[in-house]
Amino acid sequence: MKKKPARKNSIHDIARILRLSPATISRVLNNHPHVHAATRSKVMAMVEEVGYKRNAMASGLRTNKTNTVGLIVPRISMFVHAEIITTIQNELHAHGYNLIICQSNDSIELEKKLTNTLYASRVDAVIAACTLFTTDFSHFDTLTENDIPVIFYDRVPVTPYPASIIKGDDFRGGYLGGAHLLELGCRRIAYISGPLNCSIYIDRFAGFEKAMRQYNTPILNNLTFYHELSAANARKAMTRLFARKPYPDAIFAANDVSALEALHFAKEINVQVPVELKIVGYSNDPRSAIVTPSLTTIEQFPANIGRVIVTELMKILKKDTGANNTAATTGFAQITTAVGLIRRMST
Amino acid sequence: MKKKPARKNSIHDIARILRLSPATISRVLNNHPHVHAATRSKVMAMVEEVGYKRNAMASGLRTNKTNTVGLIVPRISMFVHAEIITTIQNELHAHGYNLIICQSNDSIELEKKLTNTLYASRVDAVIAACTLFTTDFSHFDTLTENDIPVIFYDRVPVTPYPASIIKGDDFRGGYLGGAHLLELGCRRIAYISGPLNCSIYIDRFAGFEKAMRQYNTPILNNLTFYHELSAANARKAMTRLFARKPYPDAIFAANDVSALEALHFAKEINVQVPVELKIVGYSNDPRSAIVTPSLTTIEQFPANIGRVIVTELMKILKKDTGANNTAATTGFAQITTAVGLIRRMST
DNA sequence: GATTTTTACTCAAACGTTTCAGTAAATAAA
DNA sequence: TTTATTTACTGAAACGTTTGAGTAAAAATC
Q1: By C-alpha distance, which of A206, A279, A275, A210 is closest to A241?
Q2: A77/B75 CB distance under 8 A
Q3: Do A76 and B102 touch (CB under 8 A)?
Q4: Residue A58 beta carbon within 7 A of nucleic strand C
Q5: B29 CA to C3 C1', in Å?
Q6: Angle at Cα A38 formed by Cα A32 and Cα A43, nearest 5°?
Q7: Which H or E run contains A250?
Q8: What pLDDT was estimated at residue A322?
Q9: Which residues partner with B99 through β-bridges?
Q10: Which residues are within 8 A (CB) of B80 and not within 5 positions of it... i.e. 6 or more apart?
Q11: How far apart are CA B12 and CA B212, in angstroms?
Q12: Mapping DSSP to helix (H, G, I), strand (E, B) and coil, where does residue A227 land?
């Protein structure tokens, strides 16, 4: 007989018990002024006693504010994303916002569905790292057109879009990795890129190109690959690269999964890393520190990215509460965050 | 001038335009019978034209149903969890439910806050993998008492609680790892456990004990450690173990992070794995396959766990829609899912 | 043609909260 | 004492949807 009989526990119930109006209860719960101290404590006591919990739907419906931010991300299992998300969540909590995390599984269809779902629950803002294949961003229009601010990060629109954009300095990352290998004397550097419809891979490659130009080293077509960055594709690339001599003296992969597979392949065919072949990855996946030899890679400082995102979002949301703001009055930020090279044993 | 002037797009607006009642629009949107085919298509066309999207808050408020499931998990970055979550999300989508993913960061306080938030948004159910430190589960009472079903997995209540429980077969996992090492001839087996207030570590250790008993091998106190399973703690344990001879001939760690650190430590002090020391981990973290030598570990088949969770949840939610169900009528499942040993190069 | 049944729709209340406008009482100012 | 001001509260509408009850028209039955 533990269960209490049919608890309803709305603001009305508390009002009825205390012979007050629901309006007063609401005032107490929202810390409005002009409510007697005695009344306030009576109400709070009763709230505690009956275990009242605000119904977010009713409240959100009335106020048109949910204090909730939606996040869409390709896969939460990717280390960089996991770290960014964790930071975002913590920072948002500090500002009184909740975070709804959604995974698109790198599927555009799902991404579309998720934007709709988030719009349906009228989140106050959306943070999105898009699918590898998202080139058309119009499914975010529902949000932007209805004044729900959107912030893109990591994989962001390449064409102008009315939203803030925050991303690691991929150009510099590409440059750092390339320059590092060139400094070490490598000249036949193979580059494993992701598809070039995606902002981050464009920039990383451009940075790499700059480094190569600085060292007057041509980029060879047969040493460059543009695939989705899976282990399987990396293996294919390696197989091609080591089918006949001259072998490359370095591999620069645009993510660590590919770099790790390259390393694995090199071991299999007894190519000594770093002596005969140097390898640089991208992202500082936890595996890159643990593999033998450990992998030189580009660190993106994900926690920093998360912080920058929330800072930017808060600017937007605070502004929102003020005067009427349209796309015209609200500038859209475009922020690039620092990256760095972590040198380990593979170079 | 792209922006349309002050779109409101409620069901009323559509009704007004088409000179129908909001009720009819609602009927169309919910596929109710008794609405004329012509009307239906007129409405659908207009819904499309003005870009109407249902307001989930209004709908949820009225129906007391959100088609949303909340998930609380210590950290999304843990591989097993990431995999389970992904499966859960996909399966739930197939059933027309959305998933809200929340991270407790292994903090009880945050876990409490999250249960409240999920209750506030009146999710239809909650799936939870608790904090390492959660021994009191009363913060889930708000949910269970208000007929929001809760399913625990991974780290689950050890004392009876009115909720379904789904977990990997930790006892068998502990047994498999122990027996494997014993079969290989190891007799001085060090065991690195997590704190014993947590269900999974109790069971894993019990399974290990059983194996040791079968081989008439005593468990030595100075070879057994109960700490939070961090790399730092694993290192401390290893330092103690290799402070003086006789050295252990095997390490069985209750998670892969610890096992990986043990492996790392062994390399540092030039103890040959697997010749002088065999190591078994738990969880099949992606790193365990990639490290040298690769790590023997216990696979938990996370995708399977995810599937079982959703299957169980659907049973509960379908039942809910039927007759009035109390804790008495709804049995609480307690399901254990299979595990397996993956032998690699560390044993 | 009168009656019943079915179909297609509308009305209005309800979900639980917030908030504007209003009021009664208490206090301050005249 | 009268008037103005402040304080503490209440009433009722509103947010956008769903749904039971009701109704008018059309179709089926007698």
Answers
A1: A279
A2: no
A3: no
A4: yes
A5: 35
A6: 65
A7: strand A250-253
A8: 47
A9: B69
A10: B154, B283, B284, B285, B300, B302
A11: 71
A12: coil
β-strand partners of A102: A72
CA closest to A139 among chain B residues: B51
Q: How far apart are CA B277 and CA B270, in angstroms?
A: 11
Distance between CA A160 and CA B26 in Å, rounded? Answer: 37
pLDDT of residue B158: 86
Whole-number Å distance between alpha carbons of A270 and A266: 6
Sheet containing strand A278-280, edge to edge, reads A224-226, A189-193, A250-253, A278-280
Facing residue for A98 by CB, picked from B99, B117, B260: B117
* Nucleotides of strand C within 7 Å of the protein's CB atoms: 7-12, 14-21
CA distance B141 to chain A (A): 11
Q: Which residue(s) pair with B252 in the sheet?
A: B191, B280
Task: Find and list the nucleotides of strand D having atoms within 7 Å of a protein beta carbon.
Answer: 7-21
**Which tens digits make up the pLDDT trace of B10-29?**
999 999 999 999 999 999 99
Tokens for A7, please give them.
């608890």
- Contact present, A128 and A140 (Cβ < 8 Å): yes
Local structure of residue B272 (DSSP, 8 states):
-
CB burial of B170-198 (b: ≥16 within 10 Å; e: otherwise) equals bbbbbbbbbbbbbeeebeebbbbbbeeeb
DSSP state of A296: B
DSSP A31: T
pLDDT of A252-271, one tens digit each? 999 999 999 999 999 999 99
Q: Which two tokens stand for residue A77?
A: 């299992």
Give residues with Cβ within 8 angstroms of A30, minimum separation 6. Answer: none
B200-228: pLDDT as tens digits = 999 999 999 999 999 999 999 999 999 99
Q: Global pTM?
A: 0.92
> Among candidates A112, A97, A304, which has minimal Cα distance to B102?
A97
Q: Do A298 and A342 touch, CB atoms closer than 8 A?
A: yes
